[in-house]
C-alpha cells in the first residue's frame, strides 16, 4: 500500500521522489535529500515516514533523529495525521507516536541505558549538562593544582570546550589546540592530564556528559556484534538537519547502516550554522560517496515560504559564499516588496522602529505571533525588551537564558539527580551547600565517604550530622531516603522535594515567591514524564528554552511577539521578520571573525535569518552603539557599518530607508520662525 493519489498530489515532483524512494519489497537504498530553506523539508520527511508506515513498515523499527525534541514531536504529529487519513483506526500502532523519534543525544541515552549492563555501565547513570560538566572539570582542575591564582591555566569553560571539540570532531588534542585554541597550546600536557582525570571522575560518580552520550554510543558501535544487533533493531533510519551533525554522529550513523540500506538524511549545506559545536558540513557533502553505488540525491529547490523579492535578496547574500553546493531557490509566489534595509540612529531607535511596525502590522491583521525579531546574540535584544515592556507588548524569547539555568530550578533538579544517582558529586555538592552549617569541607567529606562505600545512601545515613547543621541535615537525609524509596510515586515526589526545598529557598532568595512560580511550572513539566529518570534525562538533553518577561510562558491563546536568536529560529517561519543589528561586529559577530570558515558561517546565519520571512523582511542597521561601562546618560559611542555580507552590488535587491522619516512638513518647519546670524556670534567670541 502506498499513500493515495490525493495526498501525493499535494507534493511537487521532487518531494514526491523523496517520499516514494525505495518503496516496495526490495531493500531501500540510501537517500540524501538536499532541501533548501522553505522547500518543504519537514513536510516531505513526514510524508516519507507516513508512506513507509502505510506501506507496512513497523513504526517501532523506524528511527528518526532530529535536531531538537520539539522537532521530533512535531514530525511525529504530522506523520500520525497523514497516516490516519489513510489507515483510519488501523493507524493505532502510531498512537503513542513514533517510538524511536528524538535527538541523537536522547536516542543515545536510551540505547546506553538498554545496554548498560552489557557494556559495564551502571544503568542508574545521570547526565550532566554543560554547566555541571564545567563544575566537575573545575573540581578536577583544582584537585590537580592547576587552578592556583598565579597560573594562567585555561578557565573551566575553556577546558570543557577543548575537551568537547576533541571528542566531537574526533581530533587529537594538539590538532584542536593548534587550530582552535592556539593560546592554550602551551598547556597540552596538563590538559591531557586534566581530561584523563575528568574521565575518571565521571566514571567514579556514575555520570555521563553530553558528549559521552555520542562517544559511548560510537564506541559501542565499534564492536561488530553490538553494531549488528543495534543496527538490526531498525529497518529505516532517517536524520533531519544533517548539515548540523558532527563527525561522531556520522560515525554512529554509518555504523548503524554500513551499506546505507534504509538510510535517509535530509539537510541543506547553505544553512549549516553549528560548526562551533564541531558540526561539519562535510557529513552531508560526503554522504553519497560513502556507499557503493552512491546514495541517490534528490534536491528540493522550490521555495514555498517567501516572496520572490525576499528570496532574491537571500539568494544574493548566499551567492557570495566562498563554497556552495545547493542551487538557488525559486518560487512562483508573487514578487512582493523588496526587503527593507532600515537605517536608524541607534539601538533605542531600532527598538522604537520595530515596535511601531509591529503594532502597525497588528492593526492590519497580522497577529504578534506571526511576527518575529531575530538577532545574532541573546544580549542584542535588551533595548527592545525594555521598550516592549514599557509599551506593554507581550513577548516570548527563545535562545536566551534557559529556564533550567535559574538557580532555584537547578537546586531542585540537583536534589532529584542526587536521589537518582547518589554518586553524582556535582549534584550532591550543590544540594548539601544549600543547608546552613554545611560548608565545602563537610560536604566534601560526606561525599568522599559516600563515593568509597558500596552502598552510598547507607553511608550517608550512617554519617554524623556536621556540627552546625543538626536538624537541617537530618531533614535532608530523611528527604533523600523517602524520595529514593519511590513511595510517593512519580510525579508526586516533586511535591515532597519541594517541601524540603521551600525553607531553603525562602532563606536564600529575597524574591522566593516569584521563584516558587517557576517550581510550580517545573512540577507541571514533570507530570508529562513517566518516571524520574526519563524526566531528568530528557530535560537535561533538551531543556525548555523560552523565557519571558513574565513568570511563565503565556498560554497558547495569548498573542505575543517572538524574540529569538537566529540559531533558535532554525526551521521556523513568520509573516513579518525583523533582523536586529545588521552591522559588522554583530553580523559577523566580533567573536566569529577569526577564520574565513567562521565568517562563512556568519554569512549563512544571515541567510537563515532572511529565509524565515514569508512576506515582509526588515534588516535594521543602527548607525551607532553606545559603549558599555558608562552611566545611563553617557554619550560615548562607536559608529557601525552595514554588514559586509550586503555589499554595494547587492543594494538594488533591497529598499533602503531611514527612520524616523524626516517629513517635508518637519523640514519646512525648520525653515520658518526667527532667524539669527550664528557665524557672526562665533567670530565675536574672539574679538
Ligand atoms: N508541496 C507543497 N505545496 C504547498 N506548500 C508547501 C509544499 N511543501 C511545503 N509547503 C509549505 O512550505 C513552507 C515551508 O515548509 P517547511 O517548514 O517544511 O520547510 P523547510 O524546508 O523545513 O524549511 P527550512 O529548512 O527553511 O526550515 C510551509 O509553510 C509548508 O506548508
Provide a descriptive summary of the structure in words.
The protein folds into four domains: 192 residues, P-loop containing nucleotide triphosphate hydrolases (Rossmann fold), CATH 3.40.50; 80 residues; 208 residues, P-loop containing nucleotide triphosphate hydrolases (Rossmann fold, 3-Layer(aba) Sandwich), CATH 3.40.50.300; 141 residues, Orthogonal Bundle (PCRA, domain 4), CATH 1.10.486.10. Helix 6 crosses helix 7. About 2% of the residues have low confidence. It is globular, with a radius of gyration of 28 Å. The strands form four sheets. The chain has an eight-stranded mixed sheet with strand order 12-11-13-10-14-15-9-18, covered by helices on one side. It contains 27 helices and 18 strands. It is an alpha/beta fold and 687 residues long. It binds adenosine-5'-triphosphate. Adenosine-5'-triphosphate binds next to helix 3.
CATH superfamily of the largest domain: P-loop containing nucleotide triphosphate hydrolases
Fraction in helix = 40-55%
Instruction: Tell me the count of domains.
Output: 4
Distance, first to last CA? 99 Å
**CATH T-level topology of the largest domain:** Rossmann fold
The CATH class of the largest domain: Alpha Beta
Mean pLDDT: 87
Identify the overall geometry. globular
Assembly context of the chains: single chain
> Major beta sheet, specifics?
8 strands, mixed
Continuous helix count: 27
Strand content: 5-15%
GO cellular component, one term: cytosol
Catalytic activity: ATP + H2O = ADP + phosphate + H(+); Couples ATP hydrolysis with the unwinding of duplex DNA by translocating in the 3'-5' direction
Organism: Rhodopseudomonas palustris (strain ATCC BAA-98 / CGA009)
Protein name: DNA 3'-5' helicase
